[in-house]
Amino acid sequence: MARxxxxxxxxxxxxxxxxxxxxxxxxxxxxxxxxxKKESGRAILSIDCPDCYSEIVGIEIxxxxxxxxxxxxxxxxxxxxVNVTGLSEDEKEILFASLIAADFYEDKKYAVNKMKGLCxxxxxxxxxxxxxxLKKKWAEIVTYVPMVFLKSQLxxxxxxxxxxxxxxxxxxxxxVYDSNYKxxxxxxxxxxxxxxxxxxxxxxxxGEIELLGRVPKDDEYYLKEFYGDKIFxxxxxxG
Length: 239
Prior knowledge:
Layout: E1 2-9, H1 13-22, H2 24-29, E2 33-39, E3 42-49, H3 54-81, H4 89-102, H5 104-115, E4 120-122, H6 123-130, H7 132-144, H8 151-162, E5 168-172, E6 175-177, H9 196-204, E7 208-211, H10 217-227, E8 231-233
Parallel strand pairs: 1-4, 5-7, 7-8
Antiparallel strand pairs: 1-3, 2-3, 5-6
Helix pairs in contact: 1-3, 3-4, 3-5, 3-7, 4-8, 4-9
């Protein structure tokens, strides 16, 4: 048996739950044993799996750790560094999600490359000591964010992001799925619940949306407001 161990600050246990939930199907199929606990001020996720599955399980775990850094840690960074006026609280959260989404895949790839082959990862340690160039990049982005940011500018920014996005994502009720119809949970890494579905769509990196069913009223408003003609309606939507 091989052991993969991921640790985080004690208050970061939700991050470890994010990993566990996202790879639950793989862990079950590989007959892995999972243990999540708190010990000595740390949250600890231990995964014991047969040697023959250890490589693929390790790759998936590192992939999810990288998402935590590229979403949660980036959100925390921008939340503390960006102070804009002109937007409502919900619109500020949309802005943060958009800033995360702008370079999500590049940030995630950078973090993955730094952690390749590791079987034990301290998420906060990796972030604080191995990813300083990433934080430097985020600091530079902050300098370009105006102190006054209007809703019209937010709409322009999201439109700019969508110009290069081609993949279609699917929204079914309160759930968002990528182009391979795999459910996404990235918004679970963000602390607020308002407009969670809409922010999940932003974080998906999709350029088109297909609505398979009705969505919460507030989310639907912002979907139509910011995505416009990039929204498509399944016949199920009208059922």
